[in-house]
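seq:
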Amino acid sequence: MSQRQVLQVFEQYQKARTQFVQMVAELATRPQNIETLQNAGEPGARTRVASRALSPRRLRPAALPVELLGSRSVGTGVRKSIHSFQRVFGGQAERVKLPDACGRCALSLFPSSLHTGVMSLLRTLLLDVVPTIQQTAALALGRLANYNDDLAEAVVKCDILPQLVYSLAEQNRFYKKAAAFVLRAVGKHSPQLAQAIVDCGALDTLVICLEDFDPGVKEAAAWALRYIARHNAELSQAVVDAGAVPLLVLCIQEPEIALKRIAASALSDIAKHSPELAQTVVDAGAVAHLAQMILNPDAKLKHQILSALSQVSKHSVDLAEMVVEAEIFPVVLTCLKDKDEYVKKNASTLIREIAKHTPELSQLVVNAGGVAAVIDCIGSCKGNTRLPGIMMLGYVAAHSENLAMAVIISKGVPQLSVCLSEEPEDHIKAAAAWALGQIGRHTPEHARAVAVTNTLPVLLSLYMSTESSEDLQVKVLPHDSKARRLFVTSGGLKKVQEIKAEPGSLLQEYINSINSCYPEEIVRYYSPGYSDTLLQRVDSYQPLNN
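struct:
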């Protein structure tokens, strides 16, 4: 056998490995191929290799499942890749006339390695001497793990994570990005899988990657850290303890928009779990840098920035005041007019999280023009984008009579009434009913402002509707004596009695339902014509002669 023939064996071996890993990575991008790849190592998917005839010529190219070889969705390229990969162990053994024992060894090992599944094959290729094969194997693993939690668990069970973490610190930037993508894909599915990443020591290595000179490596590491931190406070604390927060704050100051986005998102996911974690983000100086980027023209970055500030603000008065001190007003109000729905929603959420804490913070929002701006925003959007703005008006109005009157003066009641009528979702209707209740509950004057918008018939129909949720019905009709009294003194009960409804109609049933919440004599007193009835009784009354 010539030297050329010997070298040709190794060349074809490398070519087959390259072709195989590239095709698996490509297959993993298409959802219809995932199940076949996932089942590649299961017993039912195996094809028989004739142990009675180990001659390479008689070995059919079927170490992978028949379903994979014969599937049209895979295509001829995959079949050629598999055939080529097989020939390394099969056909070439005959061509170079290996001794029978060596041929038997090669042929017996290869099918059993395939029977362990695609994960084990890719795990082996992570240690390949060719960097391109290593990187592509990591990419394929990431794409598979990203698809569902079963495949992500397979990555953990195959002991691939320690190998990735070790290589993450040693390899080039291309491999680092691919390896971080695998960690991200595994960690996103559940707290248990994210904990597996923490347990294998990945956090320290990922934090080191945040200091890499390559922005792509930093971005990939930030993605992985974000998916770990978002699950619960314990995992977020582990990310904090690894020293990630100061480096994430540095990342939001980098020029690359994609890096800014994911760094802001990671800070948001860390801050959301507890006041202590939010305080850690504040102590790292994140708020000032985030506030400076509120007017960045990139919409995706803006809604991540607003989300991060909201997650900090929501926990306590002190944290909300720190966000306000970063001079977000009146700048943040411009985001309520943004074309992007997520920017509008997150801006409303931020204002809500600040206003809900104290009357003083709500007054600050009112003074900045926040109430009027939110009302305009509610009018310009639909669905869940409206929800935080609706709740913000309710929180502001709940604090005091003056703040509720500020909502009324800014024409918040008609807009809430529109939401009550237009929105199909019960939870949005319930929020609007709750906000109207917070506005009207203070004095008869406040309640009258709600009643004159013709909201009561709408509330009645919602309460009586069999399709309304229990939460919505509770928000609509007051169940405490103080609220019922206010409904009477504000003229609400009188307004209900003035509604003309056909006997036996659905509207009449709504009215009867409300009347049942009050004593009969009170209902009669506020019914139209009751005063005339009393006068008639006076006229017909014959006093007893002494």
